[in-house]
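Researcher: Can you fold this with fe (ii) ion in place?
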Amino acid sequence: MTVVWSFPTRILFGENAASAVGTEAKALGATRALIVTDQGIEASDVIDPVVASLKAAGIESSIFADVSSNPLEAEVLSATDAYRQANADLVVGVGGGSPIDVAKLVRLAITHPLPLSQYTEASGGDARITKPLPPMIALPTTAGTGSEVGRSAVVTLQSSGQKAVLFSPSLIPNVAVLDPALSAGLPPRVTAATGMDALTHGIEAYCALGDHPMADAIAMQCVALTVSHLETAVHDGKDLDARGGMLKAATLGGVAFQKGLGACHSLAHPLSAVLGMHHGLANALCLPAVLDFNRSTVMPKIARIARVMGVRAEDEETLAFECAGAVRSLRKKIGLPEGLAAAGVSEEVLPKLAERALADPCHQLNPRPCTAEDMLALYRASM
Ligand SMILES: NC(=O)c1ccc[n+]([C@@H]2O[C@H](COP(=O)([O-])OP(=O)(O)OC[C@H]3O[C@@H](n4cnc5c(N)ncnc54)[C@H](O)[C@@H]3O)[C@@H](O)[C@H]2O)c1
Ligand SMILES: [Fe+2]
């Protein structure tokens, strides 16, 4: 079997990097941009340098801000109408994973007319994504999803109410602009939850089945950067070195998980779709149980993660055993709840969630296969 290793995104990193958006847009041949964001960001000053930079480069822009956390297909369709009405030829996504994913899907919907359910990963829809998409620039304002460099977009489908992943190399933004100043105002709780999403990407990508030594190295650096910077970013949001470290961690996580994810993301998706829980928090709450579950299958990898997370022990078995505890301890230091029960999840909903977790494709690359009983046991162990 031949495998593909590809890191195609142009990435700009640095304080005030957002002021280069206009030049980048011009280089992509754009004349009119649709900025996709959400209302919280539109109301803040985060969007200002992006609009100013486009204007300075002679590019008109209009703003679409009706994007919710855990975005809906209807929002993608409204944003696509806005793109048409603006006669735009570039999409600029400014925000966390939600606006960036919607921005990616506008490019898809404008060129591919079927309902989004026809393009999901689970339905083999990537084969239907055949036409070239309009260009896109992504500016993340959270540090977690890695969507700015990823080939996935997550959306709740109209037809099923399920949170689905659409996946295609065509969805990767042309340019990602990482400007630490854009995330300086992100509240501690969202900083913590999104940071745990980045950590989960690094850990799950490293443990995922598949032969991808480049993704493995990048995944470990994602873990190391998160361990160095997440606590400071949560407790002192204005520390731009920590914000920059977390933006790097999130982007590296996004690059690494082209290799695949694992059971934790399958457990996390129903927690968001059914209960509306933030995606990063859902991962943070399920990750320790998944590490314990996978330990028997990939002990050397989990021991290595534990070492990077600061666990000190001589033998591999002890290191791997302590890994879940290291995640729990980081989770506590950044002020997140200590389990699903503390986050308001009741025991009765777990069988329904487990059924949906099993239907989610992420766990297919988990190093240890998961049954329906395993999913339920993993939720119970995460309570
Ligand atoms: N495409 C992918 O590969 C991928 C991977 C993981 C998750 N996701 C998806 O991404 C979404 C979650 O994204 P997210 O965690 O980045 O959160 P988000 O985009 O939903 O944003 C969360 C909240 O933070 C606010 N916010 C964002 N940046 C801010 C800033 N700088 N200052 C103040 N407030 C700010 C937003 O207004 C919003 O209220 C979920 O829908 C998830 O499924 C996608
Ligand atoms: Fe994620």
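Model: Folded with fe (ii) ion in place. The mean pLDDT is 96.
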